[in-house]
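Database export, one record per block. Field names are fixed; values are copied verbatim from the stored entry.
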Amino acid sequence: MKKIHRFFYDFKIVDNVININDLEIVNQIKNVLKLKISEKLILFFDNKEVLCSVDSINKKFINCNVLKENNKSILSENNIILYCAILKKNNFELIVQKASEIGISKIVPIITERTIKTNLNFDRLNKIAKEACEQAERSNVIVVSDVMKFKDCLNINSDLNFLFDFSGDEFNNFKINKKNKSVSLFIGPEGGFTDNEVKLAKNNDFIIARLGKNVLRGETAAIIASYLLVN
């Protein structure tokens, strides 16, 4: 069965036709994927998606006929937010890609006492998140939010807050109620959180947990923790 490609696009249906005029998507359909007339594709935006067939292809736009509409979320979207210390460029990009595929609802870069890197290319990171959400067939695209300082995150209003640190108890020892409406998880930088940061988190009712017996790299911990909490 041939794969039907998905595109995140704020579509409008007029007389059962959608006009795609985003030049990046047009180029991807026309020149990269080389889709032909009558081939199918899926457009999704804000929990809505449509199955379309290509009707006409132009240099600046593509018209599609709507075959089927679906206004329900394809995947159950959660409210699990990943607060992750800024890491080296490639490592942080990997976190954004994999957390988006896994199903995290939002990614917040944070600056901790041991954070070294502070510069982020948000255009690139959000593009990576968009492509990962398309790949994973999610119904929405997540956004990498503005950078926050760790201390400014301590009063967040979540049902559960996990800070992952090797000093904590095994994560498997905690029973998570799936009825919790919101969960936040915190991943530290190279070298981990400082004792002071762990103490501050405890004082704000954070759960301190560790992922197994081995000391993990930041990107590894972020991906594993995201998967365990989403699933």
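Remark 1: The chain has two domains: 5-70, 80-230.
Remark 2: The helical segments are 23-32, 89-102, 122-135, 195-203, 218-230.
End of record.
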